[in-house]
């Protein structure tokens, strides 16, 4: 069974507005991520992205903060991750 409908909530108003085409993205690296995000979004029959202010979503904010010290799961890329993905798809 494939997922066809998805609702996403984010505390980043900038990201929400860029994905929803309310704000323009000027940074070239961010444009690549936005292009990738929109490509993935297009695979869904129905997609919504809604801004939730951090102060209204304390549970998610706490979970995000608890995950920060867990550095053994953190991967640092020397290049933007979309470039790494492009390299691996060419192999």
Automatic annotation (TrEMBL):
Pfam families (UniProt xref): RVT_3 (PF13456)
Residue ranges of domain RNase H type-1 in the record: 3-66
Gene3D superfamilies attached to this UniProt entry: Ribonuclease H-like superfamily/Ribonuclease H
Protein name: RNase H type-1 domain-containing protein
PANTHER family: RIBONUCLEASE H
Sample GO molecular function, one term: nucleic acid binding
